[in-house]
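Why this split exists: single-chain examples teach little about how molecules sit against one another. For that reason, every record in the complexes split bundles all components of an assembly together and asks for one structure covering all of them. Below is a record exactly as it appears in the raw files.
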Amino acid sequence: MLNLLTPERVMESFGLASAGKVYSLGAPVGRDGPVHASRNTSWHLVNSINNDSSPGSGGADDVLVTQCHASTHIDGLAHIWHGRQLFNGHSADYVTPEGAQRCGVENIGWIISRGVMLDIPKLKGLERLPGRHAVTPDELDEAAFSQGVDILPGDVVLVRTGWYKTFAMGEADMGGDYPGVSRTVCRWLYDHDILILGADNVAVEIYPPEAESLGILPVHKTQLRDLGGYLVEFLNLEELAKENVYEFLFIAAPLRITGGIGIP
Amino acid sequence: MLNLLTPERVMESFGLASAGKVYSLGAPVGRDGPVHASRNTSWHLVNSINNDSSPGSGGADDVLVTQCHASTHIDGLAHIWHGRQLFNGHSADYVTPEGAQRCGVENIGWIISRGVMLDIPKLKGLERLPGRHAVTPDELDEAAFSQGVDILPGDVVLVRTGWYKTFAMGEADMGGDYPGVSRTVCRWLYDHDILILGADNVAVEIYPPEAESLGILPVHKTQLRDLGGYLVEFLNLEELAKENVYEFLFIAAPLRITGGIGIP
Amino acid sequence: MLNLLTPERVMESFGLASAGKVYSLGAPVGRDGPVHASRNTSWHLVNSINNDSSPGSGGADDVLVTQCHASTHIDGLAHIWHGRQLFNGHSADYVTPEGAQRCGVENIGWIISRGVMLDIPKLKGLERLPGRHAVTPDELDEAAFSQGVDILPGDVVLVRTGWYKTFAMGEADMGGDYPGVSRTVCRWLYDHDILILGADNVAVEIYPPEAESLGILPVHKTQLRDLGGYLVEFLNLEELAKENVYEFLFIAAPLRITGGIGIP
Amino acid sequence: MLNLLTPERVMESFGLASAGKVYSLGAPVGRDGPVHASRNTSWHLVNSINNDSSPGSGGADDVLVTQCHASTHIDGLAHIWHGRQLFNGHSADYVTPEGAQRCGVENIGWIISRGVMLDIPKLKGLERLPGRHAVTPDELDEAAFSQGVDILPGDVVLVRTGWYKTFAMGEADMGGDYPGVSRTVCRWLYDHDILILGADNVAVEIYPPEAESLGILPVHKTQLRDLGGYLVEFLNLEELAKENVYEFLFIAAPLRITGGIGIP
């Protein structure tokens, strides 16, 4: 997929930068970031505060212990499978305790593309969506229309549910329900050639899914496994929302974790 | 310092992107990245490979345990002090086991600027600099001249010593000697308004320092503590060198580690 | 101190085992153990569940990430200093980011001794002591008397405050107040030749201390630094209390962490 | 199995302590311990060296990051399965990323029993066994006979191969071959009612196994899965060997890791 990010596309995307204002969509990393209750809170440790021989001089060092899918992160292609297959027909057996031997995140590279943010609670006149709300393709289209933005092939589409603060403050109930995109959005993604879908919630898609028969995380399965796209979770879209910024140059610089499954 | 990255500067920097080709300067993260022998090798663990109730479906999760100053990283302002002071006169007491209460890396934000790479071994006709070589201001100027690039205020300057592979293959001797910039480069940085200095070695500056009387890491002390600038270490400049790319749009998207001292 | 554990003493201690019943005083290790809110919750991760080539066969591996002073643990001699000195006059400078170069826990070895448990809330007719209760030498003597046990030189003395469950259930307030032994107990320890003092609370001693002028953790300073003894914290004494077991063979088998400061 | 450790057995075992000398069989924990090259070296970090308000006073704290099967450790029952079953017919599905929901090491408790060490290289007149040597039941019997010890039901049997130092010094080749007990020892264990088998090597049993058709780790499968016994690996038996100590009181105090698979 990311092969679509040709030099021409990259140059085109840079053209979108019109104001020079930078919005950081990543959550704080450490004890404070949003994290699903089933995962561990990250550790940030200062492992060394030392003083050298000249009095008053010294230095410090630190350590990060984190689950790659805690706080703001990209889900890599090896995060999910069905029919025992990853994207591109690779066997799920390639995901071993030593890491993903295929579809590892070290292959992602920089993401530089046009970005669009769709603010669904704003469309609905709500502060945040209710817990069992599944965002439909129609709602995405309505939001784009009311915001005055088009969806173009290759866009990075970021969906706002209004739940960023709920997660960041640890107020999301561990068992669900969390609003997110409906299973029916997969077709919409395919039709619009959208390969990177992000949201301000824990799983992009509604959780638990709309119907039990869909199995666990149906949008993950389609987006990562069938389409070879990516999901970005726990994005902080609050500043974009407040300033009504809906179209922008989107840049992500993923850590090149060898065999990685997710990227903090 | 990063206050200099105004919207106007950002827009100006984007103008430098002329070819749309992206070079990733970060080393692999995990067991393979370069790391000084005094630090721990990073752990990348797959902590979950599970299968859900529908046969053939499943997912995986991973964990990263890393020192923030291992592999490619930015040194934050709290990394070094002298006279018991950090940059801007903050007391070194603000660096506590809970993190840097002042000068933490969460304040850095995106770095978007003009970048210049100065290839010193190329200037010297060497594959890599000798272990005790201290790169002087004159050598930086000569390299810039021979490469046909100017150094402009606010540039991100990346110095190549040719040692990236040496470190990445674990062939650098633990005790030193490593080539790097001379203490005399600090004045050059100040005169050129250079606030981000990077290199392909462990400490940017020569180690051990040129004279014992300089104390430990004299360039760190000046750059981080006195000038409020940053250092970027273990950069992979090999591809830039190979393709003679000396001037470019430089982008870094630092993890916002609360109270952080370094950034992987 | 532990030099007192001569073969004769060890043989004598074994003689105390009269019933053959084993009481495990250690708390669960992992997410569930008691931990002070200022420390991190331990991580226990299964980092590998794999299946080998013969169908139905496989194995699993796990990882522990823990602060050495979380859950039940021994405080080593390098845990505290005053006058810039550790026990035996060693400079506090020996405690470096690489570990304790003197007084590390690797020197502790097995502890095999007579143990005595003193149940203070039982003496007071309470379920647990109030938050600001400082246990005095008189109370220790009274508890020993009413329980019918003598305190002998070299004993491991374990003091029950009744707060084990409070900590284990995360109900202890982060800022204090926690009951524990008074500063005046130090003299009592010295007079009775008690070198290992344990309790079912976070710091053995009352926290915050009885008077601000005492500085932080005065019992720690005396016991670890002046007397060269040890403290054992977060002990689960509930079963001993329930069965009125007050005298016993005490055994601890400390992990030999090189340069360690505490032992899980 | 450990139900056999009745109070009577415990009391009987204490009777074996005749000299009061304590031998610590655990390896150092941290950077120095023996570890198989496929696992990560443990981290021991000092995460806090701080000074309180009264000058000269202060304290330190540390952190341990370790694989539970690195250095000296006990293999728990959930470490291995075949026929998709753990010991006692529990489904292997109980081993989840959250830990072992059945057969977790928190159930082990203290081990107090008679111990016997069998020194096979001594029997052979060697410093250490050759890499492909599979220790047979006959050799175990011969060693016991020549050492003048009986094997009694319920004993903890420790087999010396002479490879402790090889592993501790990182000189064992990653791919094998390592000497260890033969598959045929399983029957011998069963006949002698031996439920805890230890050795001074990485896997107790020879690796790779004697015949490929046996699958991976056949002794593990029998001992842990079929017999419900335990294995103890990387034991330091050097001091016992040097002093010809072959019969002793064996004590182990396992960390109670909830859902744990191995115990450091």
